[in-house]
């Protein structure tokens, strides 16, 4: 298995991170309609997320490929996406451990109700369900679940 390094994202990572997000979203959430075009997603990652948020990537040492993305906003784990071919290799575990280290007082996150694998993943990491919504508060208008982790 190729070794990966988890590091802060730089401006040079924005396009690869956006493309990773698009691949991951399509694979994990095929029934969820994205409200933004691919180009809008790329611009958002380039202009807002990478420069203004605490953005982390997992990079394959040998190739430089970006295979994981995590975004933190204070105590909110706002995004965690993995390349579909890299799921089940421990990257998600590494990202969650880093998020807990960066926010030792606790974390919260949202995931879509249709994303059972994500819910099971977060529950294995000690997150507990705090609320469910009908999706009226998110751009996708997709029912979601808020999880919290308290140390």
Q: What's the structural blueprint in terms of helices and strands?
A:
Elements: E1 4-8, H1 14-28, H2 38-52, E2 54-60, E3 66-73, E4 76-82, H3 91-102, E5 107-112, H4 116-124, E6 128-133, E7 144-149
Antiparallel strand pairs: 1-2, 2-3, 3-4, 5-7, 6-7
Description:
It is a single chain. This protein is of the alpha+beta class. Helix content is 34%, strand content 30%. It contains 4 helices and 7 strands. A 4-stranded antiparallel sheet has the order 1-2-3-4, with helices on both faces. A hairpin with a 2-residue loop joins strand 3 and strand 4. The longest helix is centred in the first third of the chain and has 15 residues. The chain is globular and about 40 Å long. 28% of the residues are buried.
Tally the helices.
Answer: 4
Write out the strand line-up for the largest beta sheet, numbering strands in chain order.
1-2-3-4
Could you state the order of secondary-structure elements as H and E?
EHHEEEHEHEE
Strand content: 25-35%
Show unreliable segments. none
Helix share, percent:
25-40%
């Amino acid at each position: 298995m190729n070794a990966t390094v988890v590091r802060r994202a730089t401006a040079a990572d924005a396009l690869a991170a956006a493309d990773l997000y698009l691949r991951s979203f399509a694979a994990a959430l095929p029934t969820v309609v994205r409200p933004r075009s691919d180009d809008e997603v790329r611009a958002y990652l380039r202009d807002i997320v990478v420069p203004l948020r605490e953005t982390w990537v997992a990079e394959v040492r040998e190739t430089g490929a970006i295979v994981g993305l995590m975004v933190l906003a204070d105590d909110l784990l706002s995004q965690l996406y993995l390349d579909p071919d890299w799921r089940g290799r421990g990257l998600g575990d590494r990202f969650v451990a880093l998020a807990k280290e960066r926010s030792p007082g606790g974390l919260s996150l949202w995931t879509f109700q249709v994303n059972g694998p994500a819910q099971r993943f977060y529950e294995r990491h000690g997150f507990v369900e705090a609320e469910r919504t009908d999706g009226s508060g998110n751009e996708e208008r997709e029912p979601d679940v808020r999880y919290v982790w308290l140390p």
